[in-house]
Design goal:
By secondary structure, the protein is mainly beta. The strands form two sheets. Strands 2, 4, 5, 6, 9, 10 and 11 form a seven-stranded mixed sheet that branches. Strands 1-3-8-7 form a four-stranded antiparallel sheet, with no helix packed on it. The termini are far apart. The chain is built from no helices and eleven strands. It is globular and about 45 Å long.
């Protein structure tokens, strides 16, 4: 059974940085894609950044130039380095791990809260 665990959230001031971590365990199969999603209360979860097993990366427009996603080579572990944080970055950040073989499908973590104060 795949388990996805996030860490690294917290409360910071605008302009500061945070680094989120996500690891998926319970399988030796490499994930196709891993990504970070943000959700604010009452709103839909939205994609922040993702990375494939070919190291292709995607960033949403509102984090380009400020956030960097990285993946540990041949591991189901990713990081999200968040710089120049803004109050609008506040939300619960969820990690999604997508497999196309083995434990096929999307697997989500429990989320980690990021709060940015002005």
């Amino acid at each position: 059974q795949v388990q996805v665990v996030e860490s690294g959230g917290g409360s910071v001031q605008a302009g500061e940085s945070l680094r989120l971590s996500c690891s998926a365990s319970g399988t030796l199969i490499g994930a196709k894609t891993m990504g970070w999603y943000r959700q604010e209360p009452g709103k839909q979860r939205e994609l922040v950044a993702s990375v494939t097993n070919s190291d292709d990366k995607y960033y949403s427009d509102f984090v380009k130039g400020r956030f960097t996603i990285s993946r540990v080579y041949l591991k189901n572990t990713i990081f999200l380095q968040m710089r120049q944080l803004k109050p609008e970055d506040t939300g619960a950040y969820y990690c999604k791990v997508k497999f196309i073989v083995g434990p096929a499908g999307d697997h989500w973590g429990q989320g980690t809260q990021v709060t940015v104060s002005s």
